[in-house]
Amino acid sequence: MLYLKRLTSAPSKADLSADDLKTLDKHFDVNRYELNIDGEQVEWGLIDEVEVAEAARSNNPSGWLVKHLVFGGERYHVGVYFGKEELVLTNLSEAAARYVVALIAFYATRDIRYSGVVFAETFDV
Do 57 and 66 meet the contact criterion of CB atoms below 8 Å apart? Predict the structure, then answer.
């Protein structure tokens, strides 16, 4: 089982595009007390698990067009689970998904289980 590794410094926004910054600014916020996705808050101590999944796209020409022309490549969803509830950030670039996971790892107040796409620098096994 994987767990997020506590980071000692906040991740840099340097690898994020202007679109990534705009998306995160609109849908995601954190502070030392809580995580906020689309206006829904959860305190750090309540988070049980984080999952990153590749966004599903149909394997036909329209799916290819959406993936490559609309979104500019592979996209990811970041799910945050607490109790029986979840908050999900959808259709993030890889850089934005990495940033969100690293930011959660920085603010986490306890071990948080992780599943899904592995960004090696942010995990303890």
Answer: yes
Q: pLDDT for 79-124, tens place per residue? A: 999 999 999 999 899 999 999 999 999 999 999 999 988 765 555 5
| Burial status of residue 26 (CB atoms within 10 A of its CB: 0-12, 13-18, 19 or more) | exposed
107 residue type, one letter: Y
- Residue 62's alpha-carbon distances to 14, 46, 70, in angstroms, are 32, 40, 10
Convert the pLDDT of each residue in 15-38 to its tens digit. 899 999 999 999 999 999 999 999
DSSP string covering 36-91: EETTEEEEGGG--EEEEEEPP--SSHHHHHIIIIISSS--EEEEEEETTEEEEEEE
Is residue 105 a contact partner of residue 78, using CB atoms and an 8 Å limit?
A: no
Q: Of residues 53 and 67, which shows the higher confidence score?
A: 53
What is the total residue count of the chain? 125
